[in-house]
Amino acid sequence: MSEGRRPARSVGLGGKPLGTSSPLLGGPVADPEEPEARHAPEPDGVAAPFDPSGDHLAAKPPAALGAPAEPGPDLRSLLAEAEEGRELDDWGRSERMVELTDPLFNFYYRYWFRVEPEGIENVPSSGGALLVGNHSGALPPDAPMIMQAIRNEHPVPRPLYMLGEHWFKGYPGVSMMAAKIGVVPAHPANAQRLLGDEGRLALVFPEGAKGSGKVLWQRYRLRRFGRGGFVRTALRAGVPIVPVAVMGGEEAMPIFAHMRSLQRATGLLYAPFNHAFPHFGLAAGLMYMPAKFRIRFLEPLDLPALPEGTIEDAAAVQGIAEEIRARIQGAVDEMVAQRRSVWLG
Question: Fewer CB near the terminus (10 Å): N or C of the chain?
Answer without folding.
Answer: N
